[in-house]
């Protein structure tokens, strides 16, 4: 049997956004089924590697949103519609046919879950399943809270200051990934995030996305009122662990997930996982299993 080929990597121009270049990686490029992964706020594609390694039968399409990891920044602040169209652009650029008639499972983590659900609602013709990994809930108060107006403008200026030392930015990235796991992030994930946050562009992109969270949540709610989810299997993967002051918020979040199940329709299955927010690092097998379930003819 032939050895698995190396992941395919490419840079993709974003139509309508001069200068925005997206790094794309396809793991298991010869596999028959396809899954498209949308990362959480400010996180590079490498954090999906533990999941992709458990899915040898799935072409795993990973990418860095503009400004993140190896991608060039948006020339202007991106809207929710821009982010959803970007998913479609990446999907079309990496299309390989295969089983499912060219349709894919869309996987979204945290803030990326808003965009994954947006693609499922706006492009039902390309989606065969949806996996939301501890995804942002558009109706939850924590999602609606945002960094906007003057605080956002100040944060952007601070992120771009030469005085914000590279070491400080890298420490921010390290804390982001280690603070989001219960088991400790793998060394490769820590290295990828630390390397990404060495660039001021990365920190600026994270601040921009944080400032857009409320607008993105409202845009998804508006879309959901007009466009139902397609009749496809949905898996809602919910992290149950949190530490310190986040514990109380996590308890409220878990209660809210019952409401999300009702919102997402009759084909949704909730999967509670003993993991912190970066589920793909704490429990990659649970995420991989959710993807496999949506691909099953019995789903």
Question: What this model shows, in words?
Answer:
The chain is an alpha/beta fold and 299 residues long. The chain has one domain (8-145, 213-295): Alpha/Beta hydrolase fold, catalytic domain (Rossmann fold, 3-Layer(aba) Sandwich). It is 43% helix and 17% strand. The protein contains 12 helices and 8 strands. The chain has helices spanning 49-52, 80-93, 111-122, 141-144, 149-160, 166-178, 187-196, 200-211, 213-226, 246-263, 279-282, 284-295; strands at residues 8-13, 21-27, 33-38, 58-63, 104-109, 127-133, 234-239, 268-273. It has an 8-stranded mixed sheet, with helices on both faces. A hairpin with a 7-residue loop joins strand 1 and strand 2. Helix 2 crosses helix 3 and helix 6 (166-178) packs antiparallel against helix 7. The longest helix has 18 residues, at 246-263. The protein is globular, with a radius of gyration of 18 Å. This is Pimeloyl-ACP methyl ester carboxylesterase. It comes from Phycicoccus duodecadis. GO terms for molecular function: catalytic activity.
């Amino acid at each position: 049997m032939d050895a698995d080929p190396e992941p395919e990597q490419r840079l993709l121009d974003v139509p309508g956004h001069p200068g925005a270049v997206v790094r794309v990686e396809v793991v298991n490029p010869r596999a028959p089924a396809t899954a498209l992964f949308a990362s959480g706020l400010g996180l590079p594609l490498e954090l999906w590697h533990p999941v992709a390694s458990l899915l040898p039968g799935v072409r795993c399409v990973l990418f860095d949103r503009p400004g993140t990891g190896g991608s060039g920044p948006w020339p202007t602040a991106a809207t929710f519609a821009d982010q959803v169209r970007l998913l479609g652009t990446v999907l079309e650029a990496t299309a390989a046919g295969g089983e499912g008639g060219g349709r894919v499972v869309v996987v979204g983590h945290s803030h990326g879950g808003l965009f994954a659900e947006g693609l499922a609602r706006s492009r039902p013709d390309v989606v065969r399943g949806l996996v939301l990994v501890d995804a942002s809930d558009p109706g939850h108060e924590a999602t609606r809270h945002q960094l906007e107006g003057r605080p956002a403008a100040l944060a952007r200026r601070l992120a771009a200051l030469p005085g914000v030392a590279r070491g400080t930015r890298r420490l921010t990235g390290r804390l982001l990934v280690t603070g989001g796991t219960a088991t400790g992030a793998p060394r490769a994930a820590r290295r990828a995030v630390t390397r990404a946050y060495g660039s001021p562009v990365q920190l600026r992109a994270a601040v921009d996305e944080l400032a857009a969270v409320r607008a993105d949540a409202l845009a998804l709610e508006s879309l959901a009122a007009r466009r139902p989810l397609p009749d496809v299997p949905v898996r809602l993967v919910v992290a149950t662990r949190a530490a310190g002051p986040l514990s109380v918020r996590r308890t409220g979040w878990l209660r809210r997930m019952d409401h999300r199940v009702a919102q997402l329709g009759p084909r949704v299955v909730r999967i509670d996982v003993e993991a912190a927010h970066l589920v793909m690092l704490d429990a990659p097998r649970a995420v991989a299993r959710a993807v496999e379930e949506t691909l099953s003819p019995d789903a």
